[in-house]
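Dear Dr. H.,

I hope your travels went smoothly. While you were away I took the liberty of generating a structure for the chain from your last submission, since the lab meeting agenda had it listed for discussion. I wanted you to have the full record in hand beforehand rather than looking at slides cold. The sequence, exactly as received, is reproduced here:
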Amino acid sequence: MVRFILLSGLLIIIASCAPVQLPVEKGISRQLADWRSRHISEVEYDLDFRIPEAIDKPVTAHEVIRFCLQTRRNGLQLDFKSDSASVSRITCNGEAIPAVIKDEHILIEKKYLKTGRNVLELTFTAPDQSLNRNAEFLYTLFVPDRASTAFPCFDQPDLKAQFCLSLDVPVFWQAVANGAAKQIVPSGTRRQYRFARTEPLPTYLFAFSAGKFDTISRSRKGHRYTLYHRETDTLKVKSNVEEIFKLLFLSIDQIEAYTGSPLPFPKYDLVAVPSFQYNGMEHPGAVLYRASSLFLEGRPTSQ
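The corresponding predicted structure, in token form, is as follows:
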């Protein structure tokens, strides 16, 4: 009996140490998501996008991903719905490695990884699929798992991360993101927005918009709220803007009273997007709305 118990215990130990076979397949399987949620933590993304004025020119990007890994035995699958040609360079912990992309995943061999803190650095061309580019503006929409159509990431909601974003845009464009703009640096025909690092967010709530936007701001209780819009009908703007901010402040007051907690994010900006797919999308710090739902005709009633 003692021999049986010892043998059983040894088999359990061996089984627990054996690499888990994670198939490489399109999408994010439950098996892959569960494994990553157990073995990956403390994720951070530093993202730098260069957005050209011409819509037919590609958006290029540089990214640094930091994360803790409990085991390197199984290698790593990083989500990116593109092809190997779009990635010009990858380094893992300072070592240049090949860009191997298969079935919507960048594959990192275990020999390049280490237990504990890892750093990936990538230079790539961002696909347009979820950047929603228009002639004079763009906006991101990454719900439910579309962040990986724009940049390499762990695109599952339980792997929340802090995002530090920079946007290089035409000098006459405005830009807005989850974090507040810490610095705006003009350089010739371009300017760079550097945004504050966010609180931990799932990838589908990371967001930014940039383009030829007008802005209207109001201050309340020590906070400044800004509405970004492209509405050219000045009468629509004049007849709706005060009601927009009134309803915003009423909503914040009601949510804070209901939860007993103050608004947890350092800012709350609104972006009115022409022809937005939905009535709204609740990205912290940069909530997107369909412009026609905000700027109504005439003097609308509450009905």
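Two observations you may find useful: DSSP finds four helices and 19 strands in the chain. The radius of gyration is 23 Å.

With kind regards,
E. W.
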